[in-house]
Amino acid sequence: MVDFINELNENQREAVVNTEGPTLVIAGAGSGKTRVLTYRIANLLSKGVPAYRILALTFTNKAAREMQKRIATLVGQGNAANLWMGTFHSIFSKILRVEAEHLGYTSNFTIYDSQDSKNLIKSIVKDLKLDDKVYKPNDVLGRISMAKNNLVVAQAYAQSAKITSADQAAKKPMISEIYKYYQARCKQSDVMDFDDLLLQTNILFRDFPEILEKYQKKFDYILVDEYQDTNYSQYLIIKRLAEQHKNICVVGDDAQSIYSFRGARIENILNFRNDYPGYKLCKLEQNYRSTTTIVDAANSIISRNKEQIPKKTFSQNEEGDKIRVMKALSDKEEGFQVAQEIFRISQNEQAEFNNFAILYRTNAQSRIMEEALRKRNIPYKIYGGLSFYQRKEIKDLIAYLRLTINQNDEEALKRIINYPRRGIGDTTIDKLKEVAQKYNVSIWTLLCNLNKVPGMVSVMTAAKLTHFRQLIEGFTEIAKEENAYETTYRVAKASGIIEDLSSDDTPEGVSRRENIQELMNAVKDFCETAYKEGRDDKLPAFLEGVALLTDQDSEKPEDNNKVTLMTIHSAKGLEFENVFIVGMEEELFPAQQSAYSPSALEEERRLFYVALTRAEKRVIMTYSTSRYKNGNVVYPQPSRFIAEIDPHYLDGFFTPARPSMGRSLHGPGIQEKVARPNITLQPKVEVPDIDTSKLVPINGEQIIPGMVIFHPNFGPGKVISIDGLGVNKKAKVMFPKHGQKVLLLKFAKLYVQGHTN
DNA sequence: CGCTATATCCTTTTT
DNA sequence: GGATATAGCG
Ligand SMILES: Nc1ncnc2c1ncn2[C@@H]1O[C@H](COP(=O)(O)OP(=O)(O)OP(=O)(O)O)[C@@H](O)[C@H]1O
Q1: Which of A195, A225, A436, A621 could form a disulfide with A148 if both were Cys (CB 3.0 to 4.6 A apart)?
Q2: What is the CATH number that goes with domain A695-753?
Q3: Is the ipTM of this complex over 0.85?
Q4: Would the CB of A33 count as within 6 Å of ligand 1?
Q5: A110-189 belongs to which CATH class?
């Protein structure tokens, strides 16, 4: 039996025990929402609900795995194994495989990742003879994605006056056309992109009521984590599935909604009460994760947002350290300082490296941190960047496998038709594309009918093309008979990939070979587990999930004691003892693009809230006064977010009054309630004996008893005594307003009155 | 056709 | 700084 008494507080228990009907758990960070979800599922299982009748949606595959593991320890492995638990994308891609035929796809449809989608858009832009400067793949995909996430199909897109006039205004009137072709080409290639997985599920449920009913009956209980970051498409899937029994439990925190760029709607969680009248509301107010300092500081930040549900959150943990702010003069120094601090803390407190995380706003910041950690021999693991399955050699091999299963997969074909080199050049490929377009068939179909288009290519080229076709056909035959591992192995060999890589003895070449080997191992692993569990071990079954894997999913056992480097976005839902938030600078965090939009700025602030609340014990923020950005040096100002934290919780941040304010980011029309454009704090206390405009920084070494110094938070004070040596040198200081404090001079930013000439 | 050297663009955040 | 597009040579 699950121990609800000791592991849950009263409110949590309430939400775990009352399993029927709609339930909304809305609560601040670290308050045990995910725990509620986990125990609720465990409770359902222990009450005898079959696992396969429970649908649980998480934000990442990793979150799903961890929840599954946790549930397994509560109720036993056998019980938890058959849960329908995963991301929206992975769960509904499985359902779509079963139902694909109803929608005109095959069950082996390929999933395009964003790179594939962008390449397809690029080629359409070219076909339509549009300016690729105007129609940038990223932008166009963004528009299409946004449309799909709001269930706007190509036709509706073209008919929507609102959308088309927006495109017109942006001088990109042809996006609607591109969308149309994009969708047609996907369909022709038996391809769905990420957003299709949700959009097509909606179409399926809309157009085939009997199928919807089947799944409504299949899933007796539906649970959704991180509900604040669901988009309209996801929202509607859930609403449809829960329509009959309304056994739906969603948990979330509007203050942690950080995926609006992906179409997430905070309204989904705000409107739950309207969608499910008679719902039970569960509020959790105690934060079990963080120190009171962190919780209070995070609350003081988020309260500056206008758009929010007011929530109480308190912590009964110890007060903990103040949030430290470190300033660096360059991005390199910032990295050095962070590495130094991690090293120092790990020594002082015997802390393992896996208790540290370095969080940043953009992936580009990771490199500097990596270098600094490497120099100090601190082990680290990095998330984000390109995942294992996005490496060149892996994508190449996967492309062969994809083409083996789905010959109409144009992006895969284009990728490998001439890799390894087989003398099929750009001219030939362009010609093939052109003719295929003309006859409205896939390139593969064209390859199968070369004789019907005489004179298209030379006899020599035709022979090469035919040879390529036969190669793939051979693979397809193998794939029918053999398991995924055998097939992959033979494809890697016969395609020439292995040979091509074996001739390369540079370190990169060696690492490529290792990667291929690693993929082989993964496939082997897949086959072995599949065989043991009596599941399908053929290639299509392996390939199904590959496009949806991220690098969080290829974690290795040896990674377990390393410092974690990731973006704040990917840190959502995680927790670490010590968190470094680096790059706390204007134009970086908040992102430059957000500066002029109040709502975007609020989202940045929520992101900051997420970052702070990942920490259990300690937060250290860093900023640099110079940094490389796109190859150029920029000189950023400290982030406004630092100054938005009540200084009471901060240690080491103060900017003396500058003669002139930094340039304001706010035009006269935009008013913002609390956020100050720049950090020009006027000292709050009037001090007769210190002229604050003439303060100069002072090095810890130079401080001696009797000195009058100025502290950013505590104002002026008199040094009473000094003790400790080197990095441990401390000063006892009497502050008239705050009493006596002991300051670690290494980190305290102190100022003295400058000499006036 | 294939390879290499040089120019150009970009950059939030992710399933 | 890094990925990608293009030019130019062998
Ligand atoms: N009743 C409880 N007693 C003790 N610890 C708890 C309790 N509930 C949750 N915790 C712990 O608090 C931490 C945060 O819990 P959880 O991750 O479930 O919170 P959350 O609300 O999902 O957080 P976030 O929204 O920040 O992702 C975890 O370490 C969890 O083990």
Answers
A1: A195
A2: 2.40.10
A3: yes
A4: yes
A5: mainly alpha
